[in-house]
Each structure stands twice: as structure tokens, then as C-alpha cells.
């Protein structure tokens, strides 16, 4: 196992001498190989096995309806996705003492977005580090002021619950600005800008976006069909449906400003219950649709709000609607 930015996974090293004819035809592999005299040129190829990892840090979202894989971050996720990461390094010297002449890391992700044909898309990235000069060092390297200790190279995400609902974050960001922005533009351009910004907030899927949407509805900046359309996108757009996110959504869906608007009330209740089902009830969907391998399970066993708060409220609302013949 070897730790990298994306996790701690199995790696395979293939070490072999680099033939002279290869170096003659591709001198860029070891541009300064002659510095050490008659040193051996070594070809090292490292392949990463994403299917065998002790820790993964892949952020996956929106993967649903595919059953023939355990984790989208593996070497192959059914017929939908495959990935490889290969690093080729050229060394001069020996395996105990060497100079890295060049190192090229190639990452490929191949996607099959359409199951009914064989067309594929590919995401390709390459990082090339090549030695361009060499000189002897004198003295000791300068010390690092205020060093920070890291246990490994694995990337760490900020907690999904860290300050995402703080009022200061909303007010100091773009999401907190009024829909009446764009005064210097024409009225038509301003209206297009407002609609684009409004739709972007609805699709953002973050805690601050939800709080902002709630404030717009409470202050009647958006209402009716426009508000219902934005609320209906939340189950699909929510990135991290934590208990805090669900509680904020529940407050919105059960507020008088929503329940008194028929079309918005219907949209809010259906959207909220669908999100609860996806994130808290259906463990298979929750595992594949949301970034559980980064933030952990969203369907927490100790989250009693579903049974003790959400379902009782829905039960009372249904009984009230039946008694009033409100369909």
C-alpha cells in the first residue's frame, strides 16, 4: 500500500534497465544522464490499483441506477467507468542512490455515458517533471518556519457540517446578495442575470444555497411556480444531505410561507420526503449517490428525526387534509 492524494492503495512497480537505443531515440527521458559518468539508466513504471485500497478519497455524486460495481473509485465501475494512473520515472545511478531524470504521471478516466451505444468519453491528464540543471549544494538547507506535520499524503476534505449554515457565511458571500443586483445593466440583461443566478443557487446543492433559497421564499422574493421549481431540484442537487441540511429543509417545507401556497406546498413536501428517502432510508441509493467515502454515511442510525419528527408531522398533515377534504 502507498498513500497518495487520492487515498492509500496498492501499487505495482516494474523496474528494468532502459535500453541504450531507447535513450538515443528519446533523449528527453534522461537529458542529463551523462553527469554521473557511466551510470546505469533505470526505467521505473508504477501502476496504481484503485480496486485494492485501505482508504479512498474519491468524491462521487449523482451515481445511481448502476448496480454492477461496489465503488465508483475502483479500476472499473461496471461498464460505466474505468480509470488508470501510471507513473514512469527514469533514474540514473543505482536503486540505492540515484538521480531522477524525468517523471511522467498519466491519469485516464474513460466514461460510457450512454448505455445504448459504445461511444466513450475520456478525461486525460499528464504531469511531466524533467531535470533541466544540476549543481552541487553548499551548506545546509534553510529551516522551515512554523512547519506543519502531515501523517500522510491523502487529501482531507473540510467537514460537510463545518459552518455551512452560519449567517456570516451567507451575508459575506455572493449567495447573500440581493436578487436586485446588476443596476448598471439594462433591464432585460438584469432580468436574465437574476434568473441565471436564481437557478444557479437552486442547483448548487450546498447548505448556504439552501439557506439563501429559504430566505428568498420567506421574504417573498420568489413565490409560486418559480419557487416550486427551485425547491423541486433540491433532492437531486443536494451534495451532502446531513441532519442539519434536512432540518433546514424541513423548516422551509413546513413554514406558513410555503404551506399557504398550494403549488409550492406540494413541491416542497414531495421534494423533502424524496430527499429523506434517498439519503436516510434507501441505503443503496445513499451509498452510491452521495460522497459517503469522503464524509461517511448520511443515513445515520442515531438520527431519530425521521421517525420522531418528520413522519409524525406528515401523519398529522395527512389527517388534517383528509378531514378537510383537501386533496
UniProtKB/TrEMBL annotation:
<dbReference type="InterPro" id="IPR015819">
    <property type="entry name" value="Lipid_transp_b-sht_shell"/>
</dbReference>
<dbReference type="InterPro" id="IPR001747">
    <property type="entry name" value="Vitellogenin_N"/>
</dbReference>
<feature type="domain" description="Vitellogenin">
    <location>
        <begin position="1"/>
        <end position="327"/>
    </location>
</feature>
<dbReference type="GO" id="GO:0005319">
    <property type="term" value="F:lipid transporter activity"/>
</dbReference>
<dbReference type="InterPro" id="IPR011030">
    <property type="entry name" value="Lipovitellin_superhlx_dom"/>
</dbReference>
<protein>
    <recommendedName>
        <fullName>Vitellogenin domain-containing protein</fullName>
    </recommendedName>
</protein>
<dbReference type="InterPro" id="IPR050733">
    <property type="entry name" value="Vitellogenin/Apolipophorin"/>
</dbReference>
<feature type="region of interest" description="Disordered">
    <location>
        <begin position="137"/>
        <end position="157"/>
    </location>
</feature>
<dbReference type="Pfam" id="PF01347">
    <property type="entry name" value="Vitellogenin_N"/>
</dbReference>
<keyword id="KW-0325">Glycoprotein</keyword>
<keyword id="KW-0732">Signal</keyword>
<keyword id="KW-0758">Storage protein</keyword>
<keyword id="KW-1015">Disulfide bond</keyword>
<dbReference type="InterPro" id="IPR015816">
    <property type="entry name" value="Vitellinogen_b-sht_N"/>
</dbReference>
Amino acid at each position: 500500500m502507498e498513500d497518495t492524494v487520492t487515498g492509500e492503495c496498492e501499487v505495482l512497480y516494474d523496474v528494468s534497465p532502459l535500453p541504450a537505443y531507447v535513450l538515443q531515440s528519446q533523449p528527453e527521458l534522461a537529458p542529463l544522464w551523462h553527469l554521473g559518468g557511466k551510470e546505469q539508466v533505470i526505467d521505473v513504471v508504477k501502476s496504481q490499483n484503485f480496486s485494492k485500497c485501505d482508504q479512498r478519497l474519491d468524491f462521487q455524486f449523482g451515481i445511481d441506477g448502476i448496480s454492477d460495481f461496489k465503488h465508483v473509485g475502483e479500476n472499473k465501475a461496471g461498464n460505466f467507468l474505468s480509470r488508470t494512473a501510471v507513473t514512469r520515472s527514469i533514474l540514473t545511478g543505482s536503486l540505492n542512490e540515484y538521480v531522477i531524470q524525468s517523471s511522467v504521471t498519466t491519469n485516464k478516466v474513460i466514461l460510457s455515458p450512454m448505455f445504448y451505444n459504445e461511444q466513450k468519453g475520456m478525461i486525460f491528464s499528464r504531469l511531466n517533471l524533467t531535470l533541466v540543471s544540476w549543481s552541487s549544494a553548499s551548506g545546509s538547507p534553510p529551516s522551515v518556519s512554523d512547519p506543519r506535520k502531515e501523517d500522510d499524503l491523502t487529501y482531507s476534505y473540510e467537514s460537510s457540517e463545518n459552518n455551512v449554515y452560519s449567517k456570516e457565511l451567507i451575508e459575506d458571500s455572493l449567495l447573500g446578495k440581493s436578487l436586485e443586483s446588476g443596476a448598471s445593466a439594462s433591464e432585460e440583461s438584469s432580468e436574465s442575470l437574476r434568473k441565471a443566478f436564481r437557478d444557479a443557487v437552486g442547483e448548487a446543492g450546498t447548505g448556504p444555497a439552501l439557506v439563501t433559497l429559504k430566505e428568498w421564499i420567506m421574504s417573498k422574493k420568489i413565490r409560486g411556480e418559480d419557487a416550486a421549481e427551485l425547491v423541486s431540484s433540491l433532492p437531486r442537487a443536494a451534495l451532502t444531505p446531513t441532519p442539519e441540511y434536512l432540518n433546514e429543509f424541513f423548516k422551509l417545507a413546513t413554514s406558513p410561507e410555503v404551506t399557504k401556497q398550494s403549488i409550492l406546498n406540494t413541491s416542497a413536501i414531495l421534494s423533502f420526503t424524496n430527499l429523506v428517502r434517498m439519503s436516510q432510508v434507501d441505503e443503496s441509493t445513499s451509498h452510491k449517490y452521495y460522497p459517503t467515502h469522503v464524509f461517511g454515511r448520511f443515513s445515520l442510525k442515531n438520527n431519530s428525526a425521521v421517525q420522531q419528527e418528520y413522519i409524525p408531522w406528515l401523519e398529522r398533515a395527512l389527517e388534517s387534509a383528509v378531514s378537510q377534504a383537501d386533496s
